[in-house]
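Support request, please re-run this one:
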Amino acid sequence: MRNILLTFIALLATINIAATEHNYEWSTVFPNYKSQIPSSDFTTPDGMFRFTTDKASGESGPQFGEDSKAGLLLRLYADNTLRIESLKNAEITAVTFVIGGNGHYKLAQLTPSNGTMDTPYLGKDPTDSFREYKLFWSGNTQDVTFIVGHKCEYGIDCAEQNKDGAGTCMTKKMIITTVEPAPIQNIQTDPNPNTRVVIMNGKTYILREGNTYTLTGTEIK
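Re-run finished. Output below.
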């Protein structure tokens, strides 16, 4: 057992978990959005993610639209859904929804299919010139769907003006963080030639003498 634990420690020292941040500002990414059918469903130009929107039980459907202050907005309305899929096997660990322009008025909470929504940022941009709200999601998945809240929760209308209204989520930009373990085939420090690292269902395990272990040394029965 001591040799196995030493092997795990050596492995943890050699695995490189690389985090990558992907920034998509819609005005820059999709200048020709009107030619897309439907305009609100797309694969990012780098081929990393697929975005699929749906009206679902909402009264209005998702769309791209110009905003005089924030440029191009991906507009999601009450009860609409947004699905984000990782297309290159990277795990999505964080998504930031940057809300601009008219999106501040009726901003709703989002309900994710997995992971959690964190405390929102309801302030201004770095220059302190205009409102730039942000919603934050964190988790670990290759596929997550968000449902826009039925009612306004964080927007100016409900939070400051005490108005009752349907919710929205209108992003001018989205930031997606991913991690991808570096590929490791064998543990060179282990004298047993049959010890190797495998990735199953997006998680990393150690195979040794017919047994499977987590990276902390727990045997998987």
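The chain has three helices and 16 strands. The helical segments are 2-14, 26-29, 156-159.
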